């Protein structure tokens, strides 16, 4: 029903106002119940020519802002559910190329998350967006690599690494197949990925739990590289000393993860490339 898109912003506004105005607390749960039953949990969603991407993107921007700034948990939770629903409608009606603005809306939130200790954004919320709509993470992959490399906080670096892992899993699982030619893909960011791996090998995480996070990242990265048939390009992009460090770090797992044939040696590829330079 196209009227759903007309009613939606008014319902959300009424919900937020209910928690901002004394004496209106009972109205909030009633509105939330309507939104949950009629929209968020419904299998159906608006489709067709009546759906306008520009209007939905405006609502998406508001939901993202509310989810990262509201001090009231109930409001932030509804804003997150609103975000998932709007993304479902956008994803179901438009191509990924038509939705190129969406990742740009997520980037300022992540920028604030990495740079501002007081940010209320929950990384689990962003992870869920990446899981449901892998193309959003693909287009932010280069940005996440840069943040993981440049951030001074080990905690934030670990958080960035966790977001990168979610994106890598979509390539490993094959969910990225339909989006493999999109800008911001694994091949386009192979060199920044190599740089991050080299940095992690040269500056190990201090805590044991975080060291295990790094090891899991390496395994996922190599699995994604192999799945995308980029093993040879990866070995050429990696410096010889970094290649040796990576091989030493992963031991017997390194070669099988890259899925080299018996007659192909990643080390030989790496050496031959450097000799030809």
UniProtKB/TrEMBL annotation:
One example GO MF annotation: DNA binding
Keyword Phosphoprotein applies: no
InterPro entries membership: DNA_pol_V/MYBBP1A (IPR007015)
Source organism, top-level taxon: Eukaryota
Record flagged with keyword Secreted: no
Keywords: Nucleus
Coiled coil stretches, renumbered: none
Annotated localization: Nucleus
GO cellular component: nucleolus
A GO biological process held by the record: regulation of DNA-templated transcription
Primary location class: nucleus
Protein name listed in UniProt: Uncharacterized protein
């Amino acid at each position: 029903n196209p009227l759903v898109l007309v009613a939606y912003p008014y319902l959300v506004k009424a919900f937020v106002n209910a928690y901002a105005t004394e004496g209106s607390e009972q109205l909030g749960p009633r509105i939330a119940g309507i939104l949950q039953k009629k929209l968020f949990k419904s299998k159906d969603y608006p489709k067709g020519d009546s759906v306008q991407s520009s209007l939905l993107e405006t609502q998406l921007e508001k939901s993202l802002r509310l989810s990262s700034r509201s001090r009231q948990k109930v409001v932030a939770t509804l804003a997150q559910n609103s975000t998932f629903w709007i993304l479902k409608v956008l994803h179901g009606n438009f191509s990924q190329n038509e939705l190129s603005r969406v990742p740009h809306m997520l980037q300022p939130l992540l920028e604030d998350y990495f740079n501002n200790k007081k940010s209320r954004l929950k990384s689990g919320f962003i992870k869920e967006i990446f899981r449901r709509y892998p193309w959003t993470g693909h287009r932010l992959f280069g940005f996440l690599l840069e943040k993981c490399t440049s951030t001074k906080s080990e905690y934030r670096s670990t958080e960035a690494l966790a977001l990168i892992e979610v994106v890598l899993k979509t390539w490993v699982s094959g969910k990225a197949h339909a989006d493999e030619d999109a800008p911001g893909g694994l091949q386009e960011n192979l060199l920044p990925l190599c740089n991050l791996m080299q940095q992690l090998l040269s500056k190990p995480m201090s805590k044991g739990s975080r060291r295990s996070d790094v090891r899991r990242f390496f395994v996922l990265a190599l699995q994604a590289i192999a799945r995308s048939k980029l093993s040879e390009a990866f070995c050429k992009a990696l410096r010889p000393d970094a290649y040796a460090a990576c091989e030493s770090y992963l031991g017997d797992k390194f070669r099988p993860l890259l899925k080299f044939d018996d007659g192909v040696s990643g080390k030989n590829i790496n050496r031959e490339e450097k000799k030809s330079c």
